[in-house]
Amino acid sequence: MTLYHAFEILVVALIVTACAVHVTGRYMPRTRERVKATLAVRLGGAAATGWRGWLARRLAPQAAAGCASGCETNSGCGTCGSNTSSAASAPPDNEQIIRFVRKS
């Protein structure tokens, strides 16, 4: 095995690993966030310094904002599915309702 083949195997393995991590993160977002939070805690959390602190802050879960925060009042996030205001029950004026009709 030459140095070129070893380098080629390493690059292909890194690409496959990166793709697997991306697909896992896309289709299992809760698992991804749990793993990121666990890694942040193991690196020392907010108390860590240097590169470990930077990485821990980057991996730490972010506070939810906007519609994902579970807003109970209409605070500008009219797209919330959990919004309980009366304006959310009526379809917006710019929304077009599509009805499927079977042809005879």
Characterise the protein shown here.
- The chain is mainly alpha-helical and 104 residues long.
- It has helices at 3-27, 29-42, 50-59, 86-89.
- The protein has two domains: 3-62, no CATH class; 66-104, no CATH class.
- The protein is built from four helices and no strands.
- Helix 1 (3-27) packs across helix 2 and helix 2 packs antiparallel against helix 3 (50-59).
- The protein is flat.
- The mean pLDDT is 80.
Total beta strand runs: 0
Q: Please indicate the percent range of residues in DSSP E strands (runs of 2 or more).
A: under 5%
Structural class: mainly alpha
The value of Rg in angstroms is 23 Å
Mean pLDDT: 80
Helical residues, percent: 40-55%
**How many helical stretches?**
4
Oligomer: single chain
What is the ordering of alpha helices and beta strands? HHHH
Q: What separation lies between the terminal Cα atoms?
A: 68 Å
Instruction: Characterize the overall form.
Output: flat
* Main sheet: strands, sense, barrel: none
Uncertain stretches: none
Number of domain modules: 2
Summarize this structure as a short list of keywords or feature phrases:
single chain; 104 residues; 2 domains
SSE topology sketch:
Blueprint: H1 3-27, H2 29-42, H3 50-59, H4 86-89
Pfam family, one: DUF6587
Keywords: Membrane, Transmembrane, Transmembrane helix
Organism: Cupriavidus campinensis
What is the structure about, briefly put?
This protein has 104 residues and is mostly helical.
